[in-house]
Amino acid sequence: MSSLRNAIPRKAHKERAQPHSRRKYGLLEKHKDYVVRARSFHQKEQTLQKLKEKAAFRNPDEFYFKMIKTKTFKGVHRLESEANKYTPEELMLMKTQDIGYILQKLQSEKKKIEKLNGTLHSLDNHSSNKHTYYAEDRAEAREVRAKVSEHKESHTFEDLPKVIKKKMAASYRELENRKSRVQELEKIYTEMSMQKELQKKGRKRKLREDEIVSPTSRPVFKWRQERKR
């Protein structure tokens, strides 16, 4: 009987829409929307109830080490700074590995730039090959000179196919991007090398502007001379 009851088509009861006079209040909430909102509300209510119970039954003599290793910032517990988490030797090793990675990337970029410079030929540079032409008189010399200049002007960048022009332009853009990347990597490598040297042992001080021989925007340090055993 149940299967027969399900075989009979039934009318689908649809929920009404928002009346025209109340459209200014937005869409009318359906039952499925109410279920989602009610579940979220009760879940938050249960969470607050559990927190209230924990606060009511807490032990006033309770202690754990995070109480003194954390501090509250805008109601959120945050751990104290872990600046001394690693030893100086471990920090030096990590700094060396970082410098090695930057140096490897720098050398790789320089090799790619050399390869691009080898494959790209600038059309502004004239060929280094020189041809010697001989003429019997001045009229023939002027005629030969005109032919040579006409031959040189015929081979220009505008005569190349569009596909080759596009590829050459992309290659030149790539070359400029790689050059700028090399400059950035060199700057990072110099700064990291300076930081690594500053972490080493030895007395040092930062020079004043009047003590610097060659003016530079970067800080200059001077190490005290020590006798080597």
Question: Can you describe this structure?
Answer:
With 229 residues, this protein is mainly alpha-helical. It is 54% helix and 6% strand. The protein contains 6 helices and 4 strands, in the order αααββαααββ. It has a two-stranded antiparallel ribbon. The chain has a two-stranded antiparallel sheet with strand order 3-4. A hairpin with a 2-residue loop joins β1 and β2. The chain is flat. The model has no long low-confidence stretch (mean pLDDT 80).
Which key terms come to mind for this protein?
single chain, about 230 residues, mainly alpha, two-stranded antiparallel ribbon, two-stranded antiparallel sheet, about 55% helix, about 5% strand, flat
